[in-house]
User: What shape does this take?
Amino acid sequence: MAVQGETREKTRINVREPKHYQVIMHNDDFTSMEFVVEILIDIFRKKPAEAELLMLTVHESGRAAVGNYPYDIAATKVQAATARARQEGFPFRMTVEEA
Assistant: This one.
C-alpha cells in the first residue's frame, strides 16, 4: 500500500559489454609453422584445420587476427604465447589492437 506523497524511483541499470580487442599474430622467418599451429590450438583453442588456415594466412599476409577478446583475456593469451615462444627460442610476435 502506497503512502500519500511517497515517490517511487525507477532505477535503470545500464550494462555494457566490455570493449573487444583483436589479437594479431605477426609473421617472422624463424618461428616454425608447427609451433604457430600448436599455439593456435593450445592457447587460442582453435581446431586443427582452422589453426592451419590461420597459420598460412599469417605466413602469406604477414599478419592475421586470431581472435577477439576482452582486453584482459587478449593480453593474457598474448603473454602465454610469447612466454612459450621465448622458452622455445622463437622471436614470435603478437599484438593487441582495439577491435
Observations:
- Residues 71-88 form the longest helix (18 residues).
- The two ends are 51 Å apart (CA to CA).
